[in-house]
Each structure stands twice: as C-alpha cells, then as structure tokens.
Amino acid sequence: MSWKRSSHANLISLMNNNPDCIYSEHEDGMQIFSGMPVSRGFASAPAYVFRPLNSEAVSEVKIAPSDVEKELLRVQAAITKTKEQIRSMANRLRTGHGSVATIMDGHEMLVEDTTVIGYLEKRIRDHLYNAEWAVSCTANHFASVFNQMSDEYLKERANDVHDIARRILRNLRGQDDQILTFTEPRIVVASELTPSETILLPKEMVLGLATDRGSVTSHASLLARAMGIPAVVGIGRFSEHVRTGDRILLDGSRGKVILNPGASTQQAFAKVVARAHQIMETVDQFRQKPGLTKDGYPISLLANVDHKTGREELQAVNAQGVGLFRTEYLWLSLDREPTEEEQYKAYSKLVDTLPKDQEIVIRALDLGGDKMVTGSHLKEANPFLGNRSIRFLLNEPKMFQRQLRAILRTSAHGNVSIMYPMIATLEEFRAANAVLNQCKLALKAEGIPFNDQIKTGVMIEVPSAALIADELAQEADFFSIGTNDLVQYTLAVDRLNENVSRLYQPTHPAVLKLIDMTVRAGHAHNCPVAVCGEMASDPVLAVLLIGLGVDELSMAPNQIPQIKYVLSQVTIEDARALAKDVLSRSNCLGETLYADCKAVIKKWVPDVFFV
Ligand code: PEP
Ligand code: MG
After folding, report:
1. To the nearest whole percent, how much of the chain has pLDDT over 90?
2. How far is the centre of ligand 1, averaged over its atoms, from the C-alpha of 425 (Å)?
3. What is the CATH code for 285-610?
C-alpha cells in the first residue's frame, strides 16, 4: 500500500485495464527491458541519455607539508558551498514536496558528520593528499562502508555519498551543476541518477525516468514519486543500448521499458494511455459538482493549501473551503520567521479572494520534526517526539503571539478559524487559547478589527488526544484528524522512513478505533470532525472515513475530483455498514482490512482499479 500517491498515480489507480498483453508481442528492432516499477504512470517519448560529467576522475596528487593549511581551507570552502547548495535544494523541495526534503537534510548531516570530516582532514594533514584526492578517498571509504551493509536502504546511501562527493569536487574546481536543458518532452535515461540530479531535472519536460541502477528506496525514486514522474529503475545495462532520440515507451506501473517499439506496440500502448485519459475525463466531470454520495448525502470536500496556493486552484475543483492552511511553509520558504505583517499579507492574500462564507482553517505553525528553519531548533535525538508544533509555540510565546495576531487580523476578512497542531493534552489547548485571548485584548486596545468569535479547533494527531477527545470536544469548536501523524504516533512507525513503510497502516484496527472514538466524542458535543491527512485522499479510505461519520475531508486540491467521483458511486448506508463491519474485526491485520474494503468498494465503483 502506498499512502502518498501523486495525482498521476491516482489516475493510474483508477484504471481497470491490464496492459500486460501489449508486451508479449515482439516486433523487429524492438527490445523490452524489465526493471523495478518505482513511480507509476505511462510515458511515450524520445530518450534523452544523461551521462554525467566525469567529475570523479581524480588522481592522487601529493602536496608539500607547507601547503596543508591552504588545502584544508580549500576543502572547507568547498564544503561550506556544498552545504549552502544542499540547503537551497531542501528549501526548494519543501515548498512543493515537503515530505522528501528530508533527503537533503540527510545529505547535510553527512557533510557535517565529524567522523567524515575528521577522516577527510586526516587524508590531507597526515597523508599529504591534495583536496580532490582526499575527497575521493573519503567518499570511496564511506560508500564502501554503506555498501557492505545488509540493509537495502542503508546500502543505497552509498549513492548519496557519491552525490555529495561529486558536488564537493565540482565546488573545488569552481564548476556549476550539470543542468539538463532540453526543451522538448523526453524520457531521461541514465546509468543512475543522484538525488540532486533528479531535483535539478527540467520537470515539465521530463515525462519519465529509466535508470540502470537504483531501487524502490533510493532517494531518486522517492523524488520521482513525489514529483509525479513515472519511473523504472534497476534495468541492468539499459542505458548502454539507448541513444538520445530513440523512441521509448515506459510503464512505471509494471516496470517495463520498450526501446524502439514497433507500430503495433505503439498502437496498443496508446490505447492504454487513452484509457487512462478516458478515466481522467470521467473524473474531470466531477470537478465542479458538489461532494455528494450516491443517495445525495452531502460531504464537504476542502483543500489543503499553503501560502503559494491561489484561488484558481480551489475554484478549478470547486473546493468548499480550506480545511488545512499549512503556515509553516512560509517559514520554510523564507528560512526565517516572517514578520506579523508578512504573515498577515500571506494569509489575507488567499482569504481575500475566496467567497466570504467559505470556511478557511489556518493551522498554527507546525515547525519541528522534519520541518526546521535555520536556528529555530537545537539538535534533538528524536525531533518528531520533541519540541514540535504546539510545544514549540508555547515555548516561544512571542512568536506565537505574532502569528495569532496575524491570523486574528485576517479573520476580519472572512470565515477564518484557527487550528492547533499536535495537541496532546487539554492544558495545551487551554494554554494556546490563553495566548489567543491575550492577543485579542491587545488588538482591541489598539483598535484593530478581528472576529472576536473566531473558532478554535484541535488537530487530533497524537493518540492521547483521541483518547481524551471527549474532554477536548467540550471546549473545542471543531476537530481535524491529522492521520499522517496519528498513524505514525499510534503505530510507532516513522511516516518518512521507507524501511518501515509496510508497517504504516492507516487501517490498523488501533488507528480506526481512535478515529471512531474521536468522531463519537465530537458528535456527542456538537463538535464537527474533519480529516486533513492523506487518508482523506485515498479512495478506499475516504469511503471508510465517511462511513465512520467524518463530516469533512480535506486534501490536496488535485485529489478532490477523484474523491468526489468515488463518493458519488457509494451510498452513505453502504459506507456506514462497511465501517461497522471493519470496526468489529479488530483481530485482523491492517493490510487485510484494507484489501477487504478495497474489494467491496470495487464492486460499487466498477472502473476503479485499486493498486
Ligand atoms: C497530518 O499529520 O495528518 C497533517 C495533516 O499534518 P502534517 O502532514 O502537516 O503533519
Ligand atoms: Mg501532522
């Protein structure tokens, strides 16, 4: 099961078509290669064969003892530049693909690692190697340490070591990044792609990726998925057979790459892609429709946004409002705290363009965990369990006040509410509201307008909050279940760690019980319950959530049409019966429950092909 699907992957998940048959036919000159399907979707385009400049071709050069300090300074300057580049790539990713920005954080940690730096400096100081040779030896040493590990994920980190070393070598030589600059759509073929090469691809022109090496857990694969680029990796010596311009068909769902396809294969492939578009067209017809089940039960479908989201994106899918405004991306894109004025402008920019009655839930800063700004946090052994979200805000009352003032001021423009992230205790909710009240008093004294009746909600994303939902519901105006974190904290499974992704199961009976408790507690106290985590945008889980009584679903705007389509094929009674059945099977594995729900929903939505 994959819970973070790109929109393209979702499109493919809606296909009820088995494209296997098109690969059995052999035509003259055509070659079929198999690899690992790491990012779903289809592509048909000429190849662009990427051969990285051989910046690793370094030979041993000895320096004079008197040059040691100079050489150390050279390498330090190159490392500092490397760190800056890595940080800037991480920030670039955070704005669009937050969850994978940690890859670059991992690179930064490697560059800062004292053992690595110590090893490198020793090569210069004691062995009298020049900086280039010292970097090359250090990279080979640590890459071979990773390579010898039995764990596949750690083995893959050898590739990251080489990526960083290449970058340091380029900086030592004053070379720029090797940027691909083609202006026509292409499928990029390479022996291997490093994470930074993948980030720097001209995304709009890259229809697919096919590499000789790599694995499901390699960071380039993670990036391809996050960027929605179909990809097949680990194809063997594929790149040796391809020349730039060769026609390629790539099936990222089945791990097939067809080189120089014959006419009939191209036709069969085109049919598969056409079928995908057909399903997309059906889904597209739901863009402007309201969220309704088959029997007309209304379900509010809202959008998850950040400061870069525009009104057009919401209007294109007829979102009924904003269920989650992630404010931390403003911090991350500036790499500092925005001023109260900057925040007020950023929040108002969206609020001012939306209809006045549309609900807009602005979430207080969710910094910490994998989302850090330079200097905001001291290093923590377990940042996801540390000074994160509401804890950080309550420890930084001045910063919290500046944000609450900006949100309150925005509330004068529309139907704005505030939501506190990662609440684990009733005291935290009360403490946050106490800071809010101080801000209200100050604004009143200053004669600045705001909505005094602004609603405050609790994000239910820590198991303790679900367990005391009854108490919280008596004081909160609404709940929004952050399932991304709720699953991670309930099951003790890092949401970003591909190593344990199999254990990350939203349909684990424990997770479903916590959601059920939250909904019941909320409804007993007139406190509506939304879901704003990724579960809301999975077709199977959206039906299950509705059956559990969730009132609103909030998701990335581009996911809304397909969820509307699926809900339109299911009656509320059927969804409730399904949820009741699932809740009664607490002795089952999460995987089993997901598979069973899928099988049932498939009967109601016949053309849905769940992966
Ligand atoms: C969640 O945890 O489900 C959520 C929506 O918050 P985020 O993904 O930003 O942590
Ligand atoms: Mg969260």
Report:
1. 58
2. 18
3. 3.20.20.60
